[in-house]
Design brief:
Layout lengths: L5 H6 L4 H10 L93 E3 L17 E3 L17 E3 L17 E3 L17 E6 L14 E6 L18 E2 L18 H6 L12 E5 L5 E5 L2
Parallel strand pairs: 1-2, 2-3, 3-4, 4-5, 5-6, 6-7
Antiparallel strand pairs: 8-9
């Protein structure tokens, strides 16, 4: 294609319409092309090769990227609203400060990608591979991560409202200092996940695996751990007044420095002699796994 990039093409006297057409026709050979600031609304770049292309500050609204190879592609500060990425290979792509409303990234390979401070409403990441993906400081509303693999990923300082993580794999995922509201982690694998110093409200973890998870200094309001596995989870410095532990496994969990935990909550859960309870509750072990809990006088 000769000299590549918008600036070079404009020096050749090409119009915006001609550049648009050139990019669509050359979609299979856009490796390393600098398309900063390009206006590609509604373009069909499916099955294209955009490895390490630069798409910063671009208008990519409703672009079809399905099946494209975009390893290492840069989307910083771009508008990707409504774009389709299904089946794309996008490892190490960067979306810092991008807008991804209604973008469909289901089934994509997003391992090692970076979405720092990105904003998205209604985006779909279902079944995506997102191992070690960074979503620090993102603003997420009605986003779906259903059955996605987010192992070792980071949502630190993110805000979430109505986000779905059902059946997702979030082993050792970083949720520190997040604000989580009206979200659903039911049946997710959150083993060793870190939710410390977060705010979680009106959120459910029904049937989730939260073994060895960390909730230290987290604010909780109307959080439901129904039938969840909380073995060896840490709730140090947490107010548990409105938390539902019905059917939850709290064996070996650290509840020692919690406040407002009641015997009613403990009686609905499963504990063992390794469960660390607060000093204001007293448990007497009976036959087998049966116990009696009462407030300490």
């Amino acid at each position: 294609m000769g000299e590549l990039g918008i600036s070079a093409w404009k020096k050749q006297g090409m119009s915006d319409a001609e550049i648009y057409k050139k990019i669509v026709l050359a979609k299979h050979n856009l490796v390393n092309v600098d398309l900063t600031g390009i206006q590609l609304k509604g373009a069909n770049l499916s099955q294209g090769n955009l490895m390490r292309a630069v798409l910063k500050k671009a208008d990519l609204t409703d672009v079809d990227f399905r099946g494209a190879d975009m390893m290492g592609t840069l989307f910083d500060n771009s508008n990707v609203t409504g774009a389709q990425f299904t089946g794309s290979h996008m490892t190490q792509a960067v979306f810092n400060n991008a807008r991804l409303d209604r973008a469909n990234l289901s089934g994509t390979n997003l391992a090692y990608c970076v979405f720092k401070w990105a904003k998205m409403t209604g985006a779909v990441f279902s079944k995506a591979i997102m191992t070690q993906t960074v979503l620090i400081g993102t603003e997420l509303e009605q986003v779906q991560f259903i059955k996605a693999d987010l192992t070792h990923g980071s949502f630190r300082e993110a805000t979430m409202k109505g986000v779905k993580f059902n059946f997702a794999k979030c082993v050792r995922t970083d949720f520190r200092e997040t604000e989580i509201q009206d979200s659903d982690f039911s049946q997710a694998d959150l083993g060793q996940a870190d939710f410390s110093v977060s705010t979680i409200s009106k959120t459910q973890f029904t049937g989730a695996n939260l073994s060895q998870s960390n909730f230290t200094s987290t604010e909780m309001d109307d959080v439901r751990f129904t039938d969840a596995n909380l073995e060896q989870a840490d709730f140090t410095d947490v107010d548990l007044r409105t938390v539902n532990f019905k059917g939850a496994q709290l064996t070996g969990a650290n509840l020692e420095k919690t406040v407002n935990l009641s015997c009613g909550q403990i009686n609905l859960a499963r504990i063992d002699k390794k469960t660390k309870l607060p000093p204001y509750l007293e448990v007497t072990w009976l036959e087998g796994k049966k116990f009696e809990c009462q407030p300490r006088q």
